[in-house]
Design a protein that fits this description.
mainly alpha; single chain; two-stranded antiparallel sheet; 63% helix; 9 helices
């Protein structure tokens, strides 16, 4: 079993901000889904994304949609909850950004493609001393981003990832890896080129997890060496 160093009071406070933000985001997602479902009953639909939800709310407030007044007032209550949750999320993100800018380790992690200030602050607050892990692979294994090994008849087979360890950090890294894979053809980086080569022969979901694993290993190296991420030479 692998243990991390005892967290400081400051780090615990940052993780509390992360937990609060994660809860608020889940609540906002639930309210957005409810708003979409109710509006769909009246034939009003919009593409996915917060920007499009904003358009639905503006339509409701303007009273342009052909919706009964009682239903419109109910939907405006949901819209108000969405706006309130968004404001609270923004306030937490302002606090996290301030801590990020004051912490050199966070800024170094942000140099890694797919890692922004949310993931960087979560990593630094959770893992105060990355040197307790012997390698990047051990760190990725602690996050549950390595495949399970199954042995039978002298043969080893690799299964799905173990999903052990910190679920929140794993989630953030997978989200960041998804962005790297999604925009792999728009911005050529060492990681995106490697991901693009994998996409030619592997499913996108598998490639996303592989990229998250690679990001975790790079993050470990950045934290241990106290250096910015330096991309290797691009492969033509």
């Amino acid at each position: 079993m692998r243990f991390v160093a005892i967290k400081s009071a400051d780090a615990q406070s940052v993780l509390m901000l992360h937990r609060a933000r994660h809860l608020l985001v889940r609540q906002r997602t639930a309210q957005v889904s409810a708003l979409r479902a109710h509006l769909a009953e009246y034939g009003i639909v919009a593409p996915k994304g917060c920007a499009h939800v904003r358009g639905l709310i503006d339509t409701l407030k303007a009273g342009d949609a052909a919706i009964p007044e009682l239903a419109r007032q109910t939907l405006l209550l949901i819209a108000g909850m969405i706006d309130g949750l968004s404001q609270q999320i923004r306030q937490i993100e302002i606090e996290l950004m301030a801590w990020h800018r004051a912490t050199a380790a966070c800024q170094r992690l942000e140099t890694i493609p797919g890692i922004g200030f949310i993931t960087a602050t979560a990593l630094v607050a959770t893992v105060s001393d990355a040197s307790i892990f012997r390698s990047g692979r051990q760190f990725a294994a602690w996050l549950g981003l390595v495949p399970k090994q199954h042995s039978s008849g002298g043969k080893e087979r690799m299964g799905a990832i173990s999903k052990m360890g910190d679920r929140y950090l794993r989630h953030l890294l997978v989200v960041g890896a998804t962005a790297v894979v999604r925009y792999t053809r728009r911005k050529a980086t060492t990681i995106s080129i490697w991901a693009n080569q994998l996409l030619e022969r592997k499913p996108a979901r598998l490639v996303t997890v592989a990229v998250a694993n690679k990001m975790a290993r790079i993050a470990w190296a950045v934290m241990v060496r106290n250096e910015n991420y330096r991309a290797g030479p691009k492969i033509a």
